[in-house]
Amino acid sequence: MPAKIPATVVTGFLGAGKTTLIRHMLAHAEGKRIALIINEFGDLGVDGDILKGCGDETCREDDIMELSNGCICCTVADDFIPTMEKLLAREDAPDHIVIETSGLALPQPLVQAFNWPEIRTRVTVDGVVTVVDGKAVSEGRFAHSVAAVDAQRKLDENLDHETPLSELFEDQIACADMIVVNKSDLLDEAEASALTGKLKAEARAGVQVIRAAMGALPVDVLLGQGAGAEDDLDARGAPHHHHHDHDDEDDHDDHHHHDHDDFESFTVTRPEITDAKAFAEQVAQVIRAHDILRLKGFAAVTGKPLRLTLQAVGPRVDSYFDRPFGGEEPRETRLVVIGQSGLDRAAIDAALRS
Ligand SMILES: Nc1nc2c(ncn2[C@@H]2O[C@H](COP(=O)(O)OP(=O)(O)OP(=O)(O)O)[C@@H](O)[C@H]2O)c(=O)[nH]1
């Protein structure tokens, strides 16, 4: 029987730097043929677009596959398994498969999907890499008190003090084989080592916690961990028991909860903008006013042939020109907005289009 193809799951909260890390890995793949599967939250396909736009000859467009928008544990049979099978049916099988989960997904259901008979015989989960936004966690912007929450939970089993954010974070940490404290360029030494220590204490025994800036890690560090995670799910914090109201019919295992219901995303479209800097400030203001978790997309700037990529994680907005607009592509501005449920869509839409 041919050896199983190793697959690495890259998980981590919204905006932690998963796409950046993967982009670096593809650009420094050292001859490894890596196929990529992306499961994005929000309907704009920004991550896929950023990766496809990287222009590196080692990452061919047809090596990048996108799963339809949605939670892997709901769409495993209809979407994930067929995508994997398509990939495995190719003549030139990849050396390694990398799967980027949505920033709101739990890694456990995905790892579990590798136990499907069609997949299990041919692929193994080489490792789960959890990317952490070092700056956001240090600032307590989410998962502000994982330890405190844990202590509370231990005191009273009947209480559910968890917010969806800290719950997701805990699940992503519990499933990790390697934790990447990313954005270390924004941390001082004391912050970085405090966070590293805290994460080591929370992770399973022996999990490596490493620092990175812009996800720049050697491919050999990230891949080739040989964890066989699909055989070891129980040790990886089965998702919390938690009721969910995903929809009326409950056709999932009870222990699958559906945090993504607590989040929503929508797209705002507007014509060209005139001033890139002023627009970035406007975006930052809207984010602060409406508690938006993540905003990303592309803008057309009057007089500029290149497309402006906008990326905001919390109130920090990054923007850069990435590539010319394609011939068929409309010169317009499209942004995907992600936040906890209850966003005032009309107000956000108006504020971003003003
Ligand atoms: N300063 C700094 N910024 C970073 C670093 N890594 C990523 N970023 C920026 O953080 C933003 C989000 O990065 P992504 O790689 O898109 O994050 P992601 O986890 O893929 O985001 P989602 O797919 O939305 O969950 C981008 O603006 C990146 O340029 C880092 O190490 N340092």
UniProtKB/TrEMBL annotation:
Annotated Gene3D superfamilies: CobW-like, C-terminal domain, P-loop containing nucleotide triphosphate hydrolases
Region (Disordered): 230-263
InterPro entries attached to this UniProt entry: CobW, CobW-likC_sf, CobW-like_C, CobW/HypB/UreG_nucleotide-bd, P-loop_NTPase, Zinc-reg_GTPase_activator
Catalytically driven reaction(s): GTP + H2O = GDP + phosphate + H(+)
Entry keyword annotation includes Protein transport: no
Keywords per UniProt: Chaperone, Hydrolase, Nucleotide-binding
Keyword Hydrolase applies: yes
Biased composition (Basic and acidic residues): 253-263
CDD domains according to UniProt: CobW-like
Residue intervals of the CobW C-terminal domain: 263-352
Family: Belongs to the SIMIBI class G3E GTPase family. ZNG1 subfamily.
Xref: NCBIfam families: CobW
Task performed by this protein: Zinc chaperone that directly transfers zinc cofactor to target proteins, thereby activating them. Zinc is transferred from the CXCC motif in the GTPase domain to the zinc binding site in target proteins in a process requiring GTP hydrolysis.
This protein's name: Cobalamin biosynthesis protein CobW
Organism: Meridianimarinicoccus marinus
Name of the gene: cobW
